[in-house]
Amino acid sequence: MSEPATKDSLRRHYRRLRRDSLAAALPALQSAGCRELPDLLPPGRRLGLYWPVGSEADLRPLAALLPDRLALPAIRPWSGGPAAGVKGEQRLVYLPWSPGQPLADDGCGIPAPLEGSAPLAAGALGLLLVPALAMDAEGLRLGSGGGWYDRLRSDAAWGAVPALAVLPAACVALSLPRDPWDVAFDGWLDEGGLHLVPRRRMNVASS
Fold first, then answer.
1. Does domain 3-191 have CATH number 3.40.50.10420?
2. Which of 23, 58, 135, 171 could form an S-S bond across to 52 if both were Cys, CB 3.0 to 4.6 Å?
3. Do 39 and 63 contact (CB within 8 A), yes or no?
């Protein structure tokens, strides 16, 4: 079986597993997020939250703790030519957001801040949270296959922003297949708490 086919079969497996395990895991996962993540955010920087769709873990309770320090991802048209973070004529950007501000579907049909706000620079973000179908001990994330986060984080400035995957513990794997474009994460959050990947750069004490 080719590696792309292997990833496709893994996505089907972990999508079912995440869907089946999320309801039981979510209360403890949300509690762990609210307990452990705010202290990881450096002063003056924003948390890159995400708007959950399908069986993605919902960490929006964090918004009440950091109402003025949030950003949401959005897929937006981009006409600057080939560069990291580009898929066709669109790219993933982060836009400032506060609870109660209106949202509209982005290029992937996911609620995102309204167009008009300037995308944030990487230096404005102190921590990215990214939904995952699966995660392994080396920090390799299995996503839905769009590649948006890998392309964004292949840029050195965005790759320097600490990033955590979010998923139920049932979806943490021993190992996952790796493609050349995969960008490892600093760790993950599940219902058991925060798990940092050895040898990755994220240092909780200095955050």
1. yes
2. 58
3. no
